Amino acid sequence: xxxLAVYDWPADDGAGRAGSGTPHLHTVSSEGYVVVAGEGTVxxxxxxxxxxxxLFPGKVVWFSPGVVHRLVNDGGLEIVVVMSDAGLPEAGDxxxxxxxxxxxxxxxxxxxxxxPDQSPELTDDPRVAAAARRRxxxxxxxxxxxxxxxxxxxxxxxxxxxxxxxxxxxxRVPEWRAxxxxxxxRSTAGTVAALGELAHGGVGHLSDATVAARAAxxxxxxYGMCGRLTTWAL
Length: 234
Description:
The protein has six helices and ten strands; from the N terminus they run ββββββββααααααββ. By secondary structure, the protein is α+β, with helices and mostly antiparallel strands. Strands 1, 2, 4, 5, 6, 7, 9 and 10 form an eight-stranded antiparallel sheet that branches. A hairpin with a 2-residue loop joins strand 4 (31-46) and strand 5. The mean pLDDT is 92.
């Protein structure tokens, strides 16, 4: 879970009164936005084509893997982001909408997507900010081309991006399986076991009840794809 302050960096296409995040998709995880401050829009490219969803406090928007999404900031836009499959988004589940020649070259893609180390002991590092903005602008260039294809072909215009994304992440699948087994799969198995107990009046699992608390990631908000992130590992 993270709280996201969407970038106020202006975009070349003029979207947003304040700025724009980095368009991308997730290959496995679903994502949800709970808007807590400000206003803006999330632009999406999916099987139904291009769409815009207005964002304001109290609005919730969520989307499944494969939907390209781009946050547009009209001023002070802040969102609580909730991801499924805890651990996978941090392990490279997202693929940015770089131009096709980057997507077709894994080494070139990784070099363009990588940010300098963001040590929690450091204050804001202008090198990281500059790299994040370059990455955002490159993804916006690819996004503009992708939107033209989707406008012309509908959801079929995403096929090349989806294929490239699959090839980019294929080598990470063994690592991801381990993350899912230790996280989402284990949690689901615990729920299924508890239901089995309850069906016969058993309540043994309730004796293991606990309370947990977690502080936010130390240091200044980190530079993410769409803005500055305050994160909690739950």
